[in-house]
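Project outcomes to date are best conveyed with an example. Our students and postdoctoral researchers have been running inverse folding experiments weekly, and each run begins with a structure described purely in tokens. The record below, which covers 1022 residues, was selected by the lab manager from last quarter's runs and is presented without edits.
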């Protein structure tokens, strides 16, 4: 991309005379040098996709543009909203993600990962928001956006080696003069989710047009939309059983290792009865419905400022600057904290224990699994020992006894967990540019930016204090009285925990994430002043160098570092790292033949970028990479062009991938092969479960997490090397002279990434161990790498004791995708109005991921599951029809999302696990009463297979209607009704996919979970 002065172009006689004819109004048209008609009114031109300044030269790489007019008609409030409507962009973390949102919004081009594309502002990188190097879209000044360009493939030589899947370039209004203000408000038909926005922009030219300054301020505020406010998400639904579900961390409490019946087979995890006097006789429990606490739209508040200026110091030199500042606050709201299966030691003389509850602990059968199967019963404590322990309040008393158990108790008396993310962001740039000759110019600039995010976590119990408060033998004092300990009653009914108890258990915690980016850039570009023998345009070039220094850190207080927060998903360790990048680059555009029969234009282009990375680490790792591209375009006749591009790109590991320490966090899994009765009939399977850390006494009693979450352990790796990508595109542009106002594009793209920096999916980790269980599987590293809860044998529980699945970051992965982008545009004066039709679409043929050479090459296009996190449909398009009258515009937007299905491979894995649960060691089918998954192919009483009604989401059509009224030359009123048919998202349950994207029983990042909503905006201009 190159910004250059139009005055300088005029002086150089290089401004293209036909530029205006190539600009297709407001439609989203994949152009070579996409501009809006207003570009002629300004003093700068911005070209996305090249460092070479001449916009008349043919480009081989397609660019999709979304204009400010489209943004205004849709009434988009954030950059994330703008990008969400563009086909080919897969939903990433944003306002529709609650549990899993880190206070920022990102973009994911082609589904290859939000860390494999670059977000630019006027062609400039900005400081990233976090350790993965991703820019937060919340910092984009929407009020000043002229258009948004999306470039796929071939961008690494232009913008940096890490632009593997492409770039998103937000182009701001240049040389703005006057005063413009906008105020808007949006509300759902349900009366919630209010979204307010106000912006004011002031600009002026001065010194006879030699200079221009612009300044913009804005404010945005949105209210939450709770899942309890929609009928389809009030109750948590289990995707497998189809029944009302929820979390096993419930209220009243649940404890492992209880045996109320005092029998050989009576062990189990049981919930306290509703009246708080005993344990339930069976392992059945009331799951906690966390849906009503969660939100579909995260509350958000932002203050932002943007300023830019330029001044022609002399005929040869122009100085320019840009500054951007914003302060954002995002809140995520999730269900109450609690004790999430943590190991606790409880004195049998705890004053809150009833006799029945105490006896259930004492009666735990400690015999081996084999002996239990033979009917052997060996209680933990005899009746006499248990009775004596009930009154032994002094730990030095020989009758004093404790029981170790895993406690699951929801802190319903405390209220929801709230994470407040406050981000302060700034990025400043200063540069100088000028001409060397009439056709060659130079540009030197430097920029520096910082982002600091403070995450304040509120409403969390501390695991350590839960343990301390349970170590009590009186109602007033704990055995350890430090910190003002208050004895805790988790043995009573819901409501048994007093405010005083909660005050002791509860504490706020903070995590501060800081990033910085310093960069310098120098470019010389223009043309050589000579052309090929059969061409009229001169050969153009660009050469230059760039330097970038990244630094990032995560600084956590002791509570977050230790993982002591109940239900925080794991510890937040301190992380610090950085690296430097030195780059040299060059581009060449060579027009070969022009204005000849069958060769109206034949142009070749090429580019190369050399990068040297130096990592700030004791071992001083460094990488040297070379990226390059080659492409061309051929226009045989006016109105028809063929274009193609091939590019080789390299992405170095980011700070998180390098420096993040090994840590245990949460992921998603539908079915644990060790759960239920399956291991009871299969000795080889039981041996594997035990080898993974499950106590022998838990075999046959291991459960799946009702919330569909399990632990995993992973982290960064300083031994990582850069990943490599090869991509190519080929397409055509149609703009027939016989059909004025019509244009069309079609482009095929193919991207393949090798040595990909990836981690296995949960399905990969499970499949590597359990797909072929044999007698030797218990010692197979693929199996022993999985580590279970030492108390329950489950894959979930306290992070300190339950590492769960091993998802190690490596260079062993492969990624690939291919598909077709297409667009159609037509404009015509039909007499009573001007008609504008536009369509932008994408067909994705394939998107595959392979974690290692022995892993499944997993296809995710058109599928959803715990392995295919965010939905990527086969077909997707947006079509807009606009009628423009003298004072009124009426516009209808039609958005289409293709049918998607539950991932076939995950379905096959679930079926295989269900079959294994019905077989003994020899592969013989067990009697029906002994089967773990009886009738799984039909009635499926065990809920082992995803409910049939959740296996498909039909194609969705959304319609938005906008009316824009030009009240006067100074005032415009815009009214928009979004989702006018009030389409509701398809319910698929809450345990079928990733927690981040499968929430409230639906996929709210892909499908509209808010329902019909109305927006009104007023714009004034002077």
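After processing, the design step wrote out the following sequence:
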């Amino acid at each position: 991309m190159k910004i250059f002065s139009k005055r300088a172009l005029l002086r150089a006689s290089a401004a293209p005379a036909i530029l205006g004819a190539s600009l297709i109004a407001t439609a989203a048209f994949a152009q070579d040098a996409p501009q809006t008609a207003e570009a002629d009114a300004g003093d700068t031109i911005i070209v996305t996709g090249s460092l070479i300044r001449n916009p008349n030269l043919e480009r081989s790489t397609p660019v999709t543009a979304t204009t400010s007019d489209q943004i205004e008609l849709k009434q988009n409030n954030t950059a994330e909203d703008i990008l969400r409507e563009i086909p080919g962009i897969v939903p990433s973390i944003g306002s529709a993600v609650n549990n899993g949102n880190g206070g920022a919004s990102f973009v994911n081009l082609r589904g290859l990962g939000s860390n494999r594309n670059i977000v630019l502002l006027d062609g400039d990188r900005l400081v990233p928001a976090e350790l993965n190097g991703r820019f937060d879209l919340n910092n984009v000044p929407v009020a000043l956006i002229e258009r948004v360009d999306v470039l796929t493939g071939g961008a690494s030589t232009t913008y940096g080696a890490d632009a593997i899947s492409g770039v998103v370039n937000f182009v701001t209004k240049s040389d703005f003069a006057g005063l413009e203000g906008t105020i808007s408000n949006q509300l759902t038909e349900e009366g919630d989710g209010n979204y307010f926005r106000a912006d004011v922009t002031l600009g002026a030219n001065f010194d006879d047009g030699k200079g221009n300054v612009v300044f913009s301020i804005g404010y945005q505020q949105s209210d939450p939309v709770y899942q309890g406010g929609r009928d389809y998400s009030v109750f948590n639904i289990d995707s497998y059983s189809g029944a009302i579900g929820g979390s096993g961390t419930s209220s009243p409490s649940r404890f492992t290792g209880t045996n109320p019946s005092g029998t050989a087979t009576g062990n189990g995890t049981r919930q306290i009865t509703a009246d708080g006097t005993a344990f339930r006789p069976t392992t059945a429990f009331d799951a906690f419905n966390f849906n009503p606490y969660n939100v579909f739209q995260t509350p958000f508040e932002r203050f932002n400022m943007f300023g830019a200026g330029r001044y022609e110091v002399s005929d040869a030199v122009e100085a320019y600057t840009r500054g951007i500042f914003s302060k954002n606050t995002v809140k995520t709201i999730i269900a109450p904290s609690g004790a999430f299966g943590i190991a606790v030691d409880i004195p049998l003389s705890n004053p809150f224990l009833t006799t029945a509850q105490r006896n259930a602990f004492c009666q735990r059968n400690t015999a081996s699994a084999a002996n239990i199967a033979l009917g052997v019963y060996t209680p933990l404590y005899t009746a006499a020992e248990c009775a004596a322990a009930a009154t032994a309040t002094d730990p030095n008393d020989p009758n004093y006894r404790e029981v170790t158990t895993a406690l699951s108790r929801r802190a319903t008396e405390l209220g929801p967990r709230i994470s407040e993310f406050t981000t302060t962001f700034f990025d400043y740039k200063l540069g100088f540019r000028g001409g060397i000759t009439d056709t060659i110019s130079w540009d030197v600039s430097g920029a520096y930016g910082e982002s600091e995010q403070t995450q304040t976590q509120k409403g969390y119990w501390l695991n350590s204090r839960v343990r301390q408060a349970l170590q009590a033998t009186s109602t007033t004092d704990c055995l350890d009285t430090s910190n003002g300990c208050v004895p805790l009653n988790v043995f009573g009914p819901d409501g048994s925990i007093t405010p005083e108890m909660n005050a002791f258990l509860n504490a706020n915690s903070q995590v501060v994430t800081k990033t910085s980016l310093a960069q310098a850039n120098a470019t010389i570009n223009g043309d050589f002043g000579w052309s090929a023998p059969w061409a009229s345009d001169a050969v153009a070039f660009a050469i230059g160098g760039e330097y970038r220094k990244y630094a990032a850190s995560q600084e956590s207080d002791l509570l977050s570092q230790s993982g002591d927060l109940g239900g925080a998903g794991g510890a937040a360790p301190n992380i610090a790292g950085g690296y430097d990048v030195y780059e040299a680059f060059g581009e060449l555009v060579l027009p070969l033949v022009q204005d000849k029969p069958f060769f109206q234009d034949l142009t070749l282009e090429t580019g190369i970028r050399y990068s040297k990375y130096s990592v700030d680490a004791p071992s001083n790792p460094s990488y040297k990479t070379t990226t390059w591209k080659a492409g061309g375009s051929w226009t045989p006749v006016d109105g028809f062009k063929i274009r193609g591009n091939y590019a080789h790109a390299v992405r170095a590991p980011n700070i998180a991938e390098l420096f993040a320490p090994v840590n245990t966090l949460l992921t998603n899994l539908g079915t644990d092969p060790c759960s239920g009765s399956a291991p009871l009939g299969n000795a080889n399977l039981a041996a594997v479960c035990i080898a993974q850390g499950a106590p022998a006494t838990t075999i046959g009693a291991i459960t799946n997490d009702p919330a569909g979450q399990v632990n995993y352990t992973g982290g960064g790796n300083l031994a990582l090397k850069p990943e490599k990508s090869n991509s190519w595109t080929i397409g055509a542009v149609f703009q027939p002279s016989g059909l004025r106002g019509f244009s069309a594009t079609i482009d095929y793209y193919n991207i393949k990434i090798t040595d990909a920096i990836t981690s296995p999916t949960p399905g990969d980790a499970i499949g590597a161990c359990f797909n072929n269980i044999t007698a030797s599987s218990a010692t197979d590293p693929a199996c022993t790498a999985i580590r279970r809860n030492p108390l329950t044998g489950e894959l979930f529980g306290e992070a300190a004791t339950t590492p769960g699945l091993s998802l190690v970051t490596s260079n062993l992965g492969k990624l690939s995708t291919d598909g077709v982008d297409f667009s159609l545009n037509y404009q015509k004066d039909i007499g009573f109005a001007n008609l504008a039709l536009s369509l932008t679409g994408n067909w994705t043929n394939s998107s595959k991921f392979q974690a290692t050479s022995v892993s499944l090459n997993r296809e995710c296009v058109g599928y959803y599951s715990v392995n295919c996190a965010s939905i990527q449909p086969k077909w997707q398009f947006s079509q807009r029809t606009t009628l423009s009258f003298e004072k009124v515009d009426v516009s209808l937007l039609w958005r289409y999302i293709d049918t998607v299905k539950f991932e076939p491979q995950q379905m096959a894995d679930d079926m295989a696990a269900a079959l294994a649960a019905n077989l003994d060691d020899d592969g013989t089918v067990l009697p029906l009463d002994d089967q773990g998954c009886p009738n799984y192919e039909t009635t499926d009483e065990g809920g082992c297979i995803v409910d049939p009604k959740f296996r498909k989401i039909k194609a969705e059509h959304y319609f938005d209607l906008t009316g824009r009224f030009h009240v006067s030359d100074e005032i415009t009123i815009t009214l928009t009704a979004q989702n006018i048919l009030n389409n509701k998202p398809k319910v698929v349950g809450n345990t079928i996919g990733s927690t981040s994207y499968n929430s409230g029983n639906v996929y709210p990042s892909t499908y509209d979970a808010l329902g019909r909503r109305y927006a009104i905006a007023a714009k004034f201009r002077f």
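The CA atoms of residues 566 and 1012 lie 37 Å apart. The longest strand covers residues 440-461. The training component of this project remains on track.
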